[in-house]
Amino acid sequence: MNPSDHEFELERQLREVPVPGDLVARLQRIPEAAEIDAALDAQLSAVEIPDNLVPQLHQIAGTPVLVTRSIRERSGAQRQPSIAWAVAMWASAAAILVAFGIGWTLQMQQNDGLAKNDVTTDPVANHLALATPTESQLELEWLGLTNDEVAQSVSDPNLTELAEANLLAPSLSQVSLPASLASPPQSVNIHSLSEELPHDLLANTFLMRWQPLGANPAVASSFGLPQMILPNSSPVTYFPETKQYDRDFLLREASHPFTSPQDPAVRATKVAVTTSQESFENVVFSERPWSPELLENARTEEWLSATGKFYVPGQPGKVELRTAAGPAVFARAGTQLLQVGVVGGSADPKDRSPVHLTIAITPPENEEHALRTWMPVKIALRETIENLQPHDTLTLVVMSEFPYALIEDATLDHRDQWFAALDQIEPGQTSNLAEGIRFAAATSLTKPGFGDIRRPLIVLSDRFPSLDQATNRQLRPLIENASQQGIDFAWIQLENENYSSILPPPAALDGMGRWLVTNSLRRLNRFLDQQVHGASTLLGTDAEVTVKWNEKSVGQYRLIGYQPVGGDFVATSHTREIHAGESATLLFELVLPEDGPNDVATIDLTWHDTDGKLQKASQKVSRLQFASSWQATPMSLQAAQLTEQCLALHQNSYFSRRRGNTTDELENWTSSLNPAFKQHASFPRLELLLPGLPD
Description:
Elements: H1 3-15, H2 23-28, H3 33-45, H4 53-62, H5 76-110, H6 123-130, H7 135-138, H8 147-155, H9 157-167, H10 201-209, H11 247-253, E1 268-272, H12 278-285, H13 292-296, H14 300-306, E2 319-327, E3 335-344, E4 356-361, H15 367-384, E5 393-398, E6 404-410, H16 415-423, H17 433-445, E7 455-461, H18 469-484, E8 487-493, E9 514-517, H19 521-533, E10 538-549, E11 556-560, E12 577-579, E13 583-591, E14 599-609, E15 614-622, H20 635-651, H21 654-659, H22 663-671, H23 683-687
Parallel strand pairs: 4-5, 4-7, 7-8, 8-9
Antiparallel strand pairs: 1-10, 2-3, 3-13, 5-6, 10-12, 10-14, 11-13, 14-15
Helix pairs in contact: 3-5, 10-17, 15-19, 17-18, 20-22
């Protein structure tokens, strides 16, 4: 390395050395040069020099050849003076070097160029700077002012001006350490209010205005409420009351038998479709999941509606038909399945303003609690990100003991990161609801309020009744202040919605935003979709499907689900509304003769739009549409088959008993499920039902 490169490298390393901010103040406190010289003279005057040192040095310098004698020839008397002379000489040299070093060090500290990281031209300093630093040398000593000095600086105007000048100086980066000396990577810090405040000025001001909350921070969830399953009824009949249907079989087996379209009376099947999924949620998310009494009242059409999220999405604001066909793998050979889906498109209005949605959730206490409250929320949040537009963002706040933002400003392109973040929330964490609300409000304020952006904040918890009076008094002014700054609050108590009348909102939340009591997945989906789009999610009502069979192509058919109960053959499934993103499913088993025309059936859909006008849609089904194998079957039909068979096995239904279906058979077909299911936002809906799903 040539001298110029050597000096350039030395200068670069010295400029990267971190300098404490108060170094100038410390250097100003060093004594003046005159005092340093006086102290140095005093130390040098105290050095004792032997009397005969000067003549001996002149004799050594004047001798041309160094005179030596053998050690063996020296006597004891001759060795003693030599030892004394050597000790005196080395002591003097050491004292001179020490004094010179002290003086040089003080002069270097006094030099203003050191504060500016100027490179010294001293070869000794260059050598020390190029030497490899040890771990102890890399440790920086804090030279900041002590508490007493800080108190003194308040009254000293010179030090105050000096401290203000240091604050304006540019920050210097630290020297990069070798890999062997670098500290191990630290885990991601969870930012909470107890550690640091958000960098956004608006949120920072908001947080500093309010002290940390939580007079009763660790509030427990409320258990012990009995479960109420209210009966539902619908005045709509959904199949022709003709003799061709075995009415005794319908009452006895609660399922439709096979019938032949050769009779004109049953050549058309008219069904009032439903999007309800109440029995699915009662079985899976209740206090007694998978109990026999709940499974006894479970309805196939509601389970198909709950897992019917794998259709091709509909057009915005439209209600559309979807059909799929393929082999019935759980029936005898030659039996086919025809699926008719009624799909609601998005309710997103045109040219709407962007939204930054902040969602705050208390973590579940245990596994049972997670299944009742967290699992419906998790599924709803997975499906919410699919409804975002390019300029929309999502932020998730976990209201644990120390609230933190799990993921911020997630867009539609971050769906995989969003799914991974939701999977990180595990049961067994302590919650702090009051402090979580405060932190979530501050986090929502970090999104700049440019233009007409909306900033709704949804707080989901089952712990609202546990907030005491002291905490409510602290929360009320905070929530009012956040509302004045543009935060739209919504509070969801995760409990059976039948108890909405006995679970009033806490005093801090009363009148501040919307209060909702529900743990229904379907209700959560609608509410979140409405918050994202800022519009009603209702698309149509009273949807009916009429299937006109071609008697030349269909030998027999039967309707799966929509089974009647009672002597009046009235269906229990209700909810004749179709909202954005919801779907209804009709599933038919068909026996097709080998020879016949391609046209199998014509499907007509009628419904009323939001203005009350009657709308119609029609679609034909051909033999060419039937898939040749299970692997070629569309995703929506695979999900429908597995869902129907899962419920049939639990209920030990008539056709499941006759065909000898088993759980092993269900697990076998589940293991060969389409791999694309794993990447779908609604995959947990199906995962809750089926065994043997691939990892």
